[in-house]
Design a protein that fits this description.
Blueprint: E1 3-6, E2 16-22, E3 29-30, E4 35-40, E5 45-49, E6 54-59, E7 66-68, E8 72-77, H1 116-125, H2 143-152, H3 176-191, E9 194-202, H4 204-221, H5 227-241, E10 247-250, E11 253-256, E12 262-264, E13 266-268, E14 271-273, E15 276-277, H6 285-300, E16 314-318, E17 337-341, E18 345-351, E19 354-368, H7 374-389
Parallel strand pairs: 12-16, 16-17
Antiparallel strand pairs: 1-8, 2-4, 2-7, 3-6, 4-5, 6-8, 9-19, 10-11, 12-15, 13-14, 17-19, 18-19
Helix pairs in contact: 5-7
Length: 396
């Protein structure tokens, strides 16, 4: 009996998948555990291994087709087996006779009566003769009718006869991920009242804290502590002190969420994803570093499942690794805010009337003004700046 290859379910929320690549062709040998095909959800792509060794006898779902979870996408024939795929027949309800399809009568085509001269004139002018009322016998359209109709029409702008320069390039079809990203980003800009607020932060003590904690946490977890880990922890504390940041807008009212689930904006070659650290407020810096490293590794290998990328209540985005100093993120709906942090750069600053060089970074909050008032956002940013400039305060 042939082995069925089905669309797998990855995560509790997955309902369907789109086949984007078959690694084997019909009739080719495939070994158990070998990558057979690749599919994508709205979040990311996944590789599917062959369940058994044999011959890929039939591909039932072609590339770019979307099918529900559990649907049979292909068949693997074991040694000596031949597979025939029965053609689907229309279902007949018991007690009813199969009816032959009725012939559909084609609508009569309106015949336009005009002389060859008139037809040539209309072709030269780009005119549809059915728009011209005929004054001749039986509604025949005469030359005078065409001239009268053309005079009655508003002048048409002249069209340049110079051919446009052809643009060279190639069309890359939209993937499911790219289409979803486009839809969500556009919806966020259209459906929310986004406004932005920035603070300049002295990162001296953040760098000092990382330097002291790095060897301790690396020894404990095997993971190198990053600036992002510290900033996410500090941001979480600031959110708990200003819970309006951790809210959601609904038509019925504003939902105030109890727990903070931190989304981490992460760029992949295929597009942007946001894996989530759940209950980040209940986790130590070591646990945050370990979980962040695991999610990043899974993302790079394409192993993230939909459950890894749902449920965030606030998103943190960093562009420091690209040298970007300041940027405004787009809110990841249905959240109410996102924090964008730029690179840490040595800059001259005035401290106690002296010019000193300090590591400086910019943090920008994008927030939904329907939910968060400007004064409340400013209070959050003030607290965030204080905690980031002296991270030991999160222990208070």
């Amino acid at each position: 009996m042939a082995i069925q290859v089905v669309m797998p379910k990855v995560g509790l929320t997955m309902a369907e998948g789109k086949v984007v690549e078959w690694r084997k062709k019909e009739g080719e040998r495939v070994e158990k555990g070998e990558i057979l095909f690749v599919f994508e959800t709205e979040k990311t792509t996944f590789e599917v291994e062959a369940p058994e060794s044999g011959i890929l006898s039939k591909i039932l779902v072609q590339v770019d087709e979307t099918v529900p979870v559990g649907a049979v996408v292909g068949l693997i024939a074991l040694a000596g087996e031949a597979v025939e795929i029965p053609k689907e027949k229309p279902m007949i309800v018991p007690g009813e006779k199969e009816e032959r399809p009725r012939e559909v009568q084609k609508p009569a085509v309106e015949k336009i009566r005009a002389t060859p001269l008139v037809r040539r004139m209309a072709k030269e002018k780009g005119l549809e003769l059915k728009r011209v009322p005929g004054s001749g016998m039986g509604g025949r359209i005469r030359r005078a009718d065409v001239e009268k109709f053309l005079i009655s029409q508003p002048p048409t702008p002249a069209v340049s006869t110079i051919p446009e320069r052809a643009e060279k390039g190639k069309l890359v079809k939209l993937t499911g991920m790219r289409r979803i990203i486009a839809q969500k980003m556009l919806a966020s800009k259209v459906e929310t009242a986004q406004i932005y607020m920035s603070s300049t932060i002295d990162a001296t003590r953040i760098l000092e804290a990382r330097g002291r904690l790095l060897p301790v946490i690396e020894k404990k977890t095997g993971v190198r502590l990053t600036i992002t880990d510290i900033l996410m922890k500090v941001t979480t504390v600031a959110i708990f002190l200003h819970p309006v940041i951790n809210t959601r807008w609904t038509p019925e009212g504003i939902i105030w969420l109890n727990d903070v689930h931190m989304g981490m904006a992460m760029a992949l070659p295929e597009g942007l994803i946001v894996p989530v650290i759940w209950d980040i407020g209940k986790k130590s810096l070591s646990e945050i570093a370990r979980e962040r490293a695991e999610l990043v590794e899974k993302g790079k290998k394409g192993k993230l499942v939909p459950d890894d990328m749902k449920g965030s209540t606030f998103t943190f985005s960093s562009m420091g690794m690209y040298g970007i100093e300041e940027f405004c993120g787009i809110i990841n709906q249905p959240e109410s805010a996102i924090l964008g942090v730029g690179a840490i750069i040595d800059k001259p600053v005035v401290i106690n009337k002296e010019i000193l060089v300090r590591p400086i970074m910019k943090a920008t909050l994008s927030y939904d003004h329907r939910v968060i008032d400007g004064a409340k956002a400013a209070e959050f940013m003030k607290t965030l700046k204080e905690l980031m400039e002296d991270p030991i305060l999160i222990l208070a």
